[in-house]
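Page 42, continued from yesterday. The earlier attempt failed because a stray header line got pasted into the input along with the sequence. Redoing it now with the clean sequence only.
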Amino acid sequence: MSTNFLATRDDPKIQAFVKAFNDKYGYMPEARCAALYDAAYILAAALENSNGEFDNVSLRDGIRAVQGLERIQGTFSYDAKGNGLSKTIKAIFTNGEMQFLSE
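This time it went through. Structure tokens are written below.
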């Protein structure tokens, strides 16, 4: 299976996020939780790139300008059309748990 986030992955950034999330909400974060967390940082970067302008064109161009943004799901970059250029990871279910295989 492929995914962008695995809560059990041995990565200090991921484990810090998992701990903070679990401490606050009382359960392990799923991939969608990590996606929403990273999306907030992508939006913040886009706003910074657009000099705080909130119109559609400025935000579109601000997102396209995001390059090399390191977050818990990996590194985010966008091409001139706004397509995300991030990697996924491979995982396998073993004994009812998802285990990291490779990037």
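Notes: The chain is about 40% helix and 20% strand.
Reminder to self: strip header lines before submitting.
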